[in-house]
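Quick log. Single chain, no ligands specified.
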Amino acid sequence: MDRQTVGSANRGRLQVEVRTEGRSEVVTPVGELDHHTADLLREPLEGAVEQGRTRLVVDCSRLEFCDSTGLNVLLGARLKAEAAGGGVHLAGMLPMVARVFEITGAEAVFTVHDSLESALDT
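-> predicted structure:
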């Protein structure tokens, strides 16, 4: 499996790590995803699609909070990835974050995996 660290960004409450693993671009947000930090996640997701990396796996196992702005970032990435022939897979959501997706119905439009490993295996 190809493991290469591409980079990371940090703006206080959110850090985003990005790496290529096999045919997937793995994006790991750590902390709180909200109006003030959303661009830190939007930029690497959009950049990956622009570079032809259209299978995006968002490892949510360390994402502690996600508001509607964060949800919109993920929905926007999903639309761009799907338009380019790919998709967005969400992995390892903590209960608080999973509840946001459940309440809004957004879980129905994403491929959701229990763990990063299962997301990478599909």
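Strands lie at 3-10, 14-21, 24-33, 55-59, 63-66, 87-91, 111-113.
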